[in-house]
Design brief:
This protein is α+β, with helices and mostly antiparallel strands. The protein is built from six helices and five strands. A five-stranded antiparallel β-sheet has the order 1-2-3-4-5. β3 and β4 form a beta hairpin. The radius of gyration is 15 Å and the shape is globular. The chain starts with a helix and ends in a 5-residue tail after the last helix.
């Protein structure tokens, strides 16, 4: 996992705001999965513990697509399409649905969680929902 070195190489002063540095490997695993969609979406932020993809409209206006953030005891994946397209939740595998805590939030606690294997497909389905809705061309 070459990308995992990111967590150790970019720490510097930006580590001061990370709520729980022990969760960086879990955050990085989710970040690597999300990075596959940087071509279709715009990278807004990529700092240790906080990663955000958006669809820029103009200037400083954008539609948030996802954010991956380290919290005190977990890593949150905020996926806006889950709010705008509720069918995405019903199509999720049960193991992934158990991680859903809000309208568009998934919480992960361990890097070896089997549910993480389904995140890539969920992100792809979410991206396709935005394409079908005309939000992305």
């Amino acid at each position: 996992m070459g990308e995992a070195l990111y967590s150790r190489q970019c720490l510097g002063n930006s580590m001061e705001w990370v709520k729980n540095p022990t969760l960086l490997p879990l955050w990085d695993r989710l970040r690597v999965i999300a990075k596959e969609h940087e071509g279709a979406l715009d990278l807004l932020r990529d700092d240790p513990g906080y990663y955000k993809l958006v669809r820029k409209r103009s200037g400083s206006q954008f539609d948030p697509f996802l954010a991956i953030c380290i919290q005190r005891q977990h890593v949150s994946l905020y996926l806006t399409p889950l709010y705008r397209h509720p069918h995405l939740t019903s199509e999720m595998p049960a193991v992934l649905r158990t991680h859903k805590t809000g309208k568009c939030t998934l919480r992960f606690f361990a890097e070896d969680d089997a549910a993480i294997e389904h995140v890539g497909a969920l992100l792809q389905n979410s991206l396709m929902a935005w394409v079908e809705a005309g939000l992305i061309r």
